[in-house]
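Researcher: Last one for today. Full complex below.
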Amino acid sequence: METDDNQAGEAETGRSARKHKAILEAATEAFLRNGYLGANMDEIATLSGVSKQTVYKHFSSKEALFVEIVTSMTGRAGDAVHAEMPHVEGVEALRRYLVDYAWRQLTVVMTPRLMQLRRLVIAEVPRFPDLARVLYERGPLRAMTMLAAAFERLAARDLLVLDDPMAAASHFNWLVMAEPINRAMLLGDEAIPSPEALRQHAERGVRVFLAAYGAP
Amino acid sequence: METDDNQAGEAETGRSARKHKAILEAATEAFLRNGYLGANMDEIATLSGVSKQTVYKHFSSKEALFVEIVTSMTGRAGDAVHAEMPHVEGVEALRRYLVDYAWRQLTVVMTPRLMQLRRLVIAEVPRFPDLARVLYERGPLRAMTMLAAAFERLAARDLLVLDDPMAAASHFNWLVMAEPINRAMLLGDEAIPSPEALRQHAERGVRVFLAAYGAP
DNA sequence: TGCGAAAAACTAGACGGTCCAGTACTAGAG
DNA sequence: CTCTAGTACTGGACCGTCTAGTTTTTCGCA
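Model: Here's the assembly. Have a good evening.
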């Protein structure tokens, strides 16, 4: 197929595909840093080591490039977290699992790239409402839906006590995520807590959650 | 043309001050709708019924106008909520008061104007980090700080049980605010819940909070 | 398999058209 | 005389197109 000098397990690709990728990366950088209006196509071309003509060969317009980037980033974002809930036996195992899940979710979401993406998408809600809706659905909504299903199973086994699984999932999700996300959204990427701080935060959130929804 | 009928207790102002106000209002509208880069000074001048020269007589630059507007809006925003905690006697009175406070906070914050302001400020975090910091401090941080103080007093009277008042305040704040805010941030202003929905949401949040922090 | 030409992709830069922040200038109202 | 409306203007940014010439890939055919 392609030339087989593949380095470090990276699938080798033709020149065109390589340029395509370079453009995507440069554009991601530019849009995340400068916003939709603030980014300019000349800079993207220069940054990706490609002529402007080539940029327009791969993407029909600035708008199309923007949509492509945001959707691909939101697509990748949520996939890393969803893990099947293992058999938890007993209250203490449940607590440990919830803390672990919360911490995993936090460390995935609380990265500069995803915070910048979130700022970018929020900024463009009036211009690109669909992008924001997709981010919401593939982000918090998906997390909460899966949590709700898991909580329902746990309730059936009397490990949790709840009447509204989705409300419980929302409470769990935001007990854990809201404080650091909203801090970082306004205070910038350097306000992202350290992994240890996130772990402590997760533990406190789970303690509150279990006080409200845990088996007595 | 300029009639001097001061209506509804509005402080009497000269023509210059009136133009000043008109410019501020038009600029607020423009910036909230189109963002910093998307707004343009010609539109602001036209919208406020003033010549462009006059706009620049009152505000030295687009940037200065933007900063002025955002700071004035963030200043007004938080002031409406802070109410002295009355004497609450007993657990049920506390619950009712917390629900009421939560609902008040929600109805103040969950308005299109403030959601738009929040989107605008978040969008401009890289360009105007100070504005975002001020919004954070005068918004969530102030609310949580005041809550923490109130919670500490309640803990001294054994109506709450907590070791870290600020953590408890954060949990309360985000149990109540996070879900609707983050929904509206991404799904747009029409995703702002109705007052009745907000009331129910507040009640559920307070129930969880009291399960974790309420007196046994 | 290897060669060579057509096809496709790419570069560098210029350019048209549009938009916009901020300034300058004139005419007229108070 | 002072302030302002109205408007034209400056200087520059930027999207998307175009041109002319170069490089890479593809593929028929030896």
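The CA atoms of residues 68 and 163 of chain A lie 40 Å apart. The mean pLDDT of chain A is 90.
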